[in-house]
Structure prediction request, 67 residues.
Amino acid sequence: MLDRIALLLVIIGAVNWGLIGIFQFDLVAALFGGQAAVLSRIIYTLVGAAGLWCTTLLFRERVAVKD
Prediction:
């Protein structure tokens, strides 16, 4: 479950960076009161932590799931 939450946060961060790169529009800042707002900083921190967590996915051993 934690992997899925982390992946969702990483996707949100990737979409936000895409919007910044293409349109110079920071969706997180627009929704939560600017880049310096406490809520925006919390979201940026969670996205960063999720990115670090998702790097562990690269090094985990893959296990086949039987249906």
User: Anything to note?
Assistant: The chain has a mean pLDDT of 94. The longest helix spans residues 2-23.
